[in-house]
Each structure stands twice: as C-alpha cells, then as structure tokens.
Write a structure and sequence with these properties.
It is built from 17 helices and 10 strands. The chain is an alpha+beta fold and 405 residues long. The protein has one domain: Orthogonal Bundle (Cytochrome p450), CATH 1.10.630.10.
Length: 405
C-alpha cells in the first residue's frame, strides 16, 4: 500500500470521543476503522497523535518495537494525560529494562498462583454480597461491590491495611484522570502514593512475609539487591493497573447483562459457560477512552497507509479493534457462544497485561456471585438512559450503579 504523508493538522478531531452509552464505543470509531484506520487526533493536552482503530494495525502497534513506551515517557514527548508518565514504571519501559523487571515480578502472577487465590476471592465476593443483601434494596453495586472487591484483592496482595484502602482508591482515581483534576493535584497524588508505598516496602524488608512485596524483595536480593525505588514503582504499577479497570469491568458487565436479558437468562441456565461469557464481555465492553497505552515511533513507519514520523505519538484504540468486522462476525452483537474470540483487551507483546489472569478470575467470581446470590428479579433502580460514566477520566467506569430486586 502506498504511504501518505499527512501534514495538515488543523481541525483535528478531539480525543477522547463521546460514546452513546456506557460500555459502548464512540460512533466515530466505526467510520475511522473503515475509512482511516490510522488517523490524526488531538489529545486533551493539546498534543497530536495517530489513533489506530483497525485490528490488524493495532496488533502491529502493540508488538512492533519501533512503537516505544520508553520514548513516550521521555521529556517533551506527546502525552495523553496532564502530567508526564513516570519513566520508572515498568509500563513505561522497553526491553531489556522492561524484561528484567517483569521477570522479577512475574512469578507472583503465574496462572497457578493466581488460581490459588480463587477460594479467598469467592469468600470476599460472598461477604460483600452478604452486606448488600442485609442492607436490602435499593443498593449501589459500584460502591457496595464492584469497587470494593478488586481493591481488596490488590491491597491484600501488597499488604495494604484495610484502614488505608480509601486513600489508595483516591490516589488511583487521581492518577487516571484526563481533565477532571489540575496537574498539580495529580502530581501530588503520585508523590503521596509513592511515599506511602515506600513505607510498605520498608516494612516488608524489615518483616518479610508471604506477600507480593516480600516475594519481589527476595527476588531482588537473589540477584544482588537493588534500590527499593524499583520495588515501589512495581507496587504503584500494580495498583494503578489492577484496581479501577477491574472495578469498571465488573459494573459494565452487569449493565451489559441487564441490557441483554436473553444472554443473562442463558447464563443462569448454564453457569458453566461463564468463562466464555467473560471473554465476550471483555471484548464487547468499552472500558477506557481507547484501551491502549500511548507509544512514540522511534523511526519512520508506514502503518495503515500513512507514514508515521519518528517522534510522533501513536494511540492504539483496542476497543475499536475488538469490534472490527474484518475479524469478528457481527462484532456489535454480544454473543456468548462466539466460537473464535481473539480480543486484544489485555494487549499483546511484551506489555501484555501481567494481571490478565487475575482480572479474569475476579470477573468470573464477581459475576458468578451476583448470579448465584442476587434474586432473578435483579434490575436497575432507575432509568437506564440516566447512567453516565466518569467524566474526564481515562477509565470510563460508572460512578454508581443503582440496583434493586
């Protein structure tokens, strides 16, 4: 395909783009994917980026080393959020530094270790639903369940005391802001959370246990030790990546099931099909403004028929790729019996989500608990059209989900 140089950047479409309903993609994604799968947009910061909406093009961006996360964290690079990315985060590194850090933390996230968490996770689900049922309808499924479950799981992994979890959620909310909070407040939240986590790391070093931080510290010590700043950044990465996204996915999945009563009824009849249903919900639901992390091209690259210059930003719209009709039959239909589901919700390549298995079992157990414990008369307590996502936020989760039964 012949490459095209695009130099006119006036009147660029603004990103993020509005969605017609929580969990649904922006209407503009379908047109862009068909006509311009790699298109210029203007980010909330005023910087420009190439928005990638096609499935094939997204796979390239996520796996080609010429699209760099480290370059996106460099001083002066185009950025999506109000403050620059922290270059000390594993998310903002390329191999070999990324490989070294991921290798240290990966043993705590093996499929077997994560599966071992399932019984405790199920108990957490039941305890939260006990509280919800005891209080009686109506209830807010977000504050009473969807947010409390993943923050409990992540904080237990890291050894965060229950009394400090509210602070953690506030910091994560701030750190994933696009336009809701001033840059100074977001930067302060980053400093506060890192200082707090430094105290946890120091405690884990003084009094080793079986938690994630102790495992990572032990792994570092086996290779000669290191500055605890890296351990702090690993903990911060796990917190910011593993709490709000899972909470948002749980709530959106409940909404999606209530909007598709025939699929909900089928799940109630055949609960053993839940893992496949979870995969379809992960494909179908649009949780973030786009879905992927911003990259910067390290050299000129032709992608989707356009030439991306070295130093230009590229934003993979994974949620658009997950609705690509070139890959999925009837992509806008929720189908729990979909035979082939190569969704890329958790990314691809070296930055494939470390917590993907954990997110899957959290979603499985959360939905299984709701189906098992809440009455079949479960429904929204109010007008579904009144539901709205967090404004100005990277994660387009629901601030509340009023339900009754």
């Amino acid at each position: 395909m012949r490459s095209t140089d695009t130099t006119d950047t006036t009147d660029l479409p603004a990103f993020p783009m509005p969605s017609p309903f929580p969990g649904e993609p922006p209407i503009a994604f379908a047109q862009l994917r068909e006509e311009k799968p790699v298109a210029r947009v203007r980010l909330p910061t005023g910087d420009e980026a190439w928005l990638v909406t096609g499935h094939a093009e997204n796979r390239i961006v996520l796996t080609d080393a010429r699209f760099s996360r480290a370059a996106a964290a460099a001083p002066g690079a185009p950025r999506l959020q109000p403050i620059p990315p922290d270059p000390g985060s594993m998310l903002n590194m390329d191999p070999p530094e990324h490989t070294r850090l991921r290798r240290l933390v990966a043993p705590a996230f093996t499929p077997r270790r994560i599966e071992d968490l399932r019984p405790a996770l199920r108990r957490d689900v039941d305890a939260l639903l006990d509280d919800l049922l005891a209080a009686g309808p109506p209830a807010d499924l977000v504050t009473g369940f969807a947010r409390r479950l993943p923050v409990a799981v992540i904080c237990e992994l890291l050894g965060v005391p229950g009394s400090d979890r509210r602070r953690i959620t506030e910091w994560v909310d701030l750190l994933l802001s696009l336009t809701t909070h001033p840059p100074q407040r977001i930067a302060a939240a980053r400093r506060e959370m890192k200082a707090y986590l430094a105290g946890l790391v120091e405690s884990a070093r003084d009094r080793p246990g079986n938690g994630l931080l102790s495992q990572v510290i032990e792994a570092y010590d086996e290779i000669g030790g290191t500055d605890d700043e890296e351990v702090v950044m690993l903990a911060a990465t796990i917190l910011t990546g593993g709490f709000l996204t899972t909470a948002g996915e749980i709530a959106l999945s409940i909404v999606t099931l209530l909007r598709h009563p025939e699929q909900l009824a089928a799940l109630r009849r055949e609960p053993e099909t839940l893992p496949r249903a979870v995969e379809e919900l992960l494909r179908y639901n649009v949780l973030t403004t786009g879905g992927g992390l911003l990259r910067v091209a390290t050299e000129d690259v032709v992608l989707g028929g356009v030439r991306i210059r070295a130093g230009e930003a590229v934003l993979p719209a994974i949620s658009a790729a997950n609705r690509d009709p070139r890959v999925y039959t009837e992509p806008d239909v929720l189908d729990f019996r979909r035979p082939d589901n190569p969704h890329i919700t958790f990314g691809l390549g070296v930055h494939y989500c470390l917590g993907a298995k954990l997110a899957r079992i959290e979603l499985e157990e959360a939905l299984a608990g709701v189906l098992r414990r809440l009455p079949p008369t479960l429904r929204l307590a109010g007008d579904m059209t009144a539901l709205a996502v967090h404004p100005g936020h990277l994660v387009r989760g629901l601030p509340e989900l009023p339900i009754t039964w």
